[in-house]
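ZP: hey, is the fe (ii) ion complex queued? I don't see it on the tracker
AM: it wasn't, my bad. submitting now with these inputs:
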Amino acid sequence: MVSKVFLRSWSHVSKMMSGARTYQLKPSRLGVEVFGIDLAQQQPQGVIDQIKEDVTQHRLMIFRNQSPISGDRHVEISLWFGELESTFYKHPKSPHPDVFRVSNVESEGCRGVGRTGWHIDGSFQPAPFNYSLYYMHVVPKEGDTVFAPLNEIIEGLSEDQQAKWDKLYMMSDRRGSLVHPLVYSHPRTGKKVSTSNLKGEVYPDIKLVFIKAKK
Ligand SMILES: [Fe+2]
């Protein structure tokens, strides 16, 4: 039985413009829940521009009460944000070649994805992904997809820890020599964030920092 299936695609950044918000935002523990908009329907450019502004400010947007999203529509929405980075692994049941279909059941989607620990999507590439767009077909009853507030984590470090992290680099275990600064400034907000791909043993304190940041 399928207990978890979700699809995702990702894309690179495009320019921001101001628009009019015609949907409602409700603060969530991290980011916002969004009501009053059905992404399966075509949206005016002003609404698309507002969504792009909102995701920059709030980082995570959870769109509730959605009609079914086709693979073509998933890709169409992803293209609001720029050029797509197509998926590396293709599953026979993927609704579109650029949509990464993930499941805990092999016949439904690629298994064991993102299970190595906290990570930035695409951090094994020279330019990690700017956005990931997830479409949850079946929400698992157990096991969470968890997002961490990176700026709060960095800001929550002591001065000594921040000075130490400022000197560190992240090395990809998939591409060997590729490195990114562990801490960098977000290109749009200027806030400090982190390129991390942690399995826990390298910086065991990050889990404690994350718990502290959530309170
Ligand atoms: Fe991921």
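AM: back. Residues 1-18, 200-215 have pLDDT under 50 and may be disordered.
ZP: great, adding it to the tracker
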